[in-house]
Predict the structure.
Amino acid sequence: MLAVRDHRDRAAFAALFDFFAPRLKRFVMRGGMGSGQAEEIVQEVMLTVWRKAAMFDPERAQVSSWIYRIARNRQIDKLRRENRPLPEVLAHDPGTEPDAGQVVALEQETVQLKQALGKLKPEQREMIEKAYLGELTHQQINEQTGLPLGTIKSRIRLGLERLRHELKAMRDE
């Protein structure tokens, strides 16, 4: 692991991969995942090990503990994503088209939302746009931006609170 961390040694990483991949797969499968999902998680974990090798500190944890922690967290993330309730499908009667009042109301709401988004701090707006408009998961945003998950979640939460406040203020006017 130190060779991977300090020198980006591909041969050392290959040895790490060969050693840990089958063990991680068994570990993940014991946690309730199927073979295909387990392989996917193992790939993600080992990619994370390569990308985040600089974060490994042998004084804080053993290599195996560090890698298994990454695997456990990745498995929890996957389970949460799968168990997230899906939005209900809205019944839409193809024979009914929205009337002019509904179209105008939707356009006004869209304008208000854009104005409210414009009042957010840029980092909060960016996270909300990635999560809701870009439909990215927190993990995907983390991989894209390199920001810690806690920072991403905080920015989204604070941005949504501010957005609610701004929209409420606009409605009250």
